[in-house]
Amino acid sequence: MTAEKLNEYFEQHPFDSLSKAVFSLLYTAIIQNVLAPGTKINMSQLSNELNISRSPIQDACKELEAIRFLEYIPEKKGYFVSTFKTIDMQHVYDARKMFESKAAFYCVQYHYFENLEQMIRLAEAFKSAFLSKNYVIISELDIAFHELLVKSSHNPYLVKSYADMVKIWRRFSAFSHNFFEANPDNPYINALMYEHISICNAIQTGIARLAETAVESHLDTVMNLSLLQRTEWSPF
Known about the structure:
Layout: H1 3-12, H2 18-31, H3 43-50, H4 55-66, E1 70-73, E2 78-81, H5 86-109, H6 116-131, H7 138-151, H8 156-173, H9 176-182, H10 187-204, H11 208-227
Antiparallel strand pairs: 1-2
Helix pairs in contact: 2-4, 5-7, 5-8, 5-11, 6-7, 6-10, 7-8, 10-11
């Protein structure tokens, strides 16, 4: 992490605060596993590398602690990148299930179909990425599809709350391609690749409850896929 990276951030976001810029740099480094679980945030080193005071770094760390990317360990007097835990993944997916299933219901109930064609394109691309084993792009296609689904609810409170949760989900999602590459024969993968298309088909029926159920079923599949892993944490 360098002052050059910080300058690049401000070239794209010139009106953001310094603490928000540091948050973004640390957030990205954690998602990309540049800062692996268990890594201590060396504030003095980071201050020197970015050529800034420690105050915005401390503010950024508090924000990252709030979304469970960092944890403060008093006996070690510092912030550390948090480890993955299955219970964290389960909480995220339980919340996603509530948000997304209702978004699909509202999309159909109130005939908010303006995003449906784009959702169908994303669903087809998602399936194609699995078939071609292009696991690296699956994560972004997945997030894009579900964000568009929630946006289609036209409920500003739902959309805002979901956006906050996506910040946490991205950490699990960023590691998904590693799992797919290591487990190409997982029985849930064949089901998973077609389920975005199934959601679109359910929306097209015009039956709100059917669309809601399709989303619930999809997230159950993802949860089962995650829990089949032998590791302590899930990348989803």
